[in-house]
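Q: Joint fold for the lines below.
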Amino acid sequence: MPVPPVDPEVAARAARRQARSLALQRMLPTSVQQAFVLLRSVWQRWFLWLILALLVMGLLITVVWLAGRHEAEQVQTALDRDTADAASDLRAGLMRNQQALQALHAAGLDSERWANDVTPLMRGHREWLRLEWRDLQLRTRAVADTPYRMRVFDEEARNAEQVDVALACRLARQTGSAAYSPSHYVPRPENGGLEVMELCVPAGADGYLIATYALRDVLTELVTATLRRGQEVSLTEPDSTRLASVGTARRAGSRVFTSEQPVELTGAPMVLRVDGWRSAPDVFPNMLTGLVTAMSIALVSVLVLLARDTRRRLRAERELADSLAFRKAMEDSVVTGLRARDLQGRTTYVNPAFCEMVGFTAEELTRIDDEVPYWPTELAHEYQRRQTLRLAGGMPPREGFESVFMRRDGTRIPVLIFEAPLINAQGTQTGWMSAFIDVSEQRRIEEISRASQERLQASARLATVGEMASLLSHELTQPLAAIASYASGSLNLLHGSGGDLHSDREDIAMAVRRIAEQADRAGQVIRSVHDFVRRRDRTREAVSPQALVDAVLPLVRLQARKLGVRIDLALDEALPRVMCDRTLVEQVLLNLARNAMQAMDLPELRARVLVLRVRRSEAGAADGAQDARRWLEFSVADVGGGITPEVAAQLFTPFFTTRADGMGLGLSLCRTVVEQHGGVLLFEPNRPCGTVFRFTLPTA
Amino acid sequence: MQPLIDGLIFIVDDDASVREALAWLLRSRRLASEHYASAEAFELRLAEEAMPSQPHCLLLDVRMPGTSGLVLFDRLAERGLLEEMPVIFLTGHADVPTAVDAVKRGAFDFCEKPFSDNALVDRIEQALGLSLRAMELRQTRHLLRRRIAELTERERDVMRLVVEGLPNKLIADQLSISVRTVEVHRARVFDKMEVKSAVELANLLRTLD
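A: Joint structure:
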């Protein structure tokens, strides 16, 4: 791998960082280190999420803030507009009043007509407190008070305000038009006081017309009533000193929007101020904010869900990939051939083992083709029929069935086939899955095993015969001894001098007859052995139990006589014949009888009885299943010393023996033989002493 | 062909043909025999009848049902019957070590079946000879004991000292009697014991041990 060039400074920095982190790790105890590592991994994992949350939060706050501000701006704008309208209304109103006064002057002022002219005017202008006509020296010529109030001014107090009036009138005279005085306060004893303002309209030579405005009434009358609703409308001086105000008082906990609009009045600059308030803005002050918030939450939720879903998907995909890889590895590694077919009989899948088994590639096998390349040509017809049957829904045997396949090179292989329906995720059958086991090796092993089993049995039989050699020699020595005795005696008589020759002759004749008898007896002994040892064909045949017993009885009796054992036979009446390999079963019987007799070869044992019993049995199969076969039970009972638990534990173990001259093969072979016949061999204590061995054989 | 010894042979074997053949063989040599099928049967005979007066021996099969030959042999040994009734074991070849062991314990011989019959009969005759000598010895002792019983106490004292080889004078000193008296006793002892000399007397008494 090429190493990218490293900037020495970067490397040094990295090294320093590493050293620092190492030093840190060295300083910290292990548990803290672990916590540190854990923290870092958690940080790495949640870092992006945290940033996302912060961004969303920031967005949310910005939107809420912007929305709030936008709303406030709207309110402010509306308020400004309203205020501007109101200010212009106010100015227009004041101008109209001015014109009304000029009109009054124009109509010609006359002391007599004053009351008539002025009264309707006063009724029309509620904002006016008083209308005066003064001469050029500002002496009062005529006065009219508003009919809506109690009299506000007395003449003395009015004179005190002469300064303001003079100021306004001088200004009016200078400018030649109407002018206002600055507002001033008129205290009233009954209900506080009033802020008033004078308007002086020069009336040429007639002097001046002076109207006194109550500022509060100016607001009431000249400003649109709607503006006062929910808002406070006030007139202030340019320095914000409040002069008069109308409208709703300010509510606590509300936000105030203020708009000011200057009202340019000659001599009395004033500001119209409107204080609107709205309830304090909520976190979600309006629909938009709420909507945005809700959508943000929804967005975050969806993101979270999406992330979760993605993670789950990733995990599922990883698991799927793992299990796929696992399955692939499994299919590739098994020696069992696997093949899937769809419902039309086309091969859709084969695993490498199957390909190897039949010698074709997977492509050749899955090619859509009527010809199945691994069917032996002579059997293809039958296989076709079988496949048709299977596709029609015939269930294969659970334990599988055997068949023969053909390799590419034409050699035949025996296979064991297991078939099962292929069910997809929706629970419908999509085809058949078949497993194939190449049993040719198994066959070969079975063959070898059978051969070795046979060899073992044959050698065991020879061993049995070997063990019996001394017994046999004893059996043979008896007649031989007798023969030798008669022969020697006869010679003695023939060579003898004295005695009655005639009676000697009879004696010799008798001796020779005896010799013949004994020779015959010896011959029988040898024949009984020969019959037994002779290898018969290994076939199952129907044999009567009596015949089996009779076959071994001579040999059994030989030993029984020797050991002083009485043999009791107990065969039930009319026993059916058993299906068995005669040689092997005889061997079993002989072995059991010999064991039984040897078990009774105890010096202190007087009554030595061997009971050989054959009777029908209810159940005899090895697995205890009740099958249709009927069974015979053979039992060999002795009255010997019995079997100790230690011996019983390994009684059937090959090469386990309690005898010095034994090979330890007898009982293990007996059991093998009985089990090969489907029966069981077992033993139990005999009453009152000894042991009973029982085995079962199926009847023919 | 006359038998050298007039004897009786007991045969104990579980195999009838062997018993009969042996009896027949012995008869061909003019030897009388009785045969029994088992140790029990033979023991019954010993209990019911007296031992035969003529020399006898026992042919015993080692392996038999019931009481085996060896067990019977041990019982006979306990009863002290083996001296006058030598036992020849009949064995199969597998029993040879057993039989050898039995010989070490006092059996006369063993014979492996199938046997060379006349050789067996020869051994039987030797056994009978042994039996005969044993019987004669028993009779001699019996006679001797009877003679000793006839001696007086003083004569028995004198005889003991004579056999020890003491001269008359010393005998007289030891018994505190006169030499003359010793001579009389001595002559009477020789007379009653039917011996001529002290040496003969000593030999005679040794057979008692």
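Q: Anything notable?
A: The first strand of chain A starts at residue 128 and ends at 134. The interface with chain B takes residues 470, 473-474, 477-490, 492-493, 496-499, 507, 510-511, 514, 517-518, 521, 561-565, 603, 606, 608 of chain A (CB under 8 Å).
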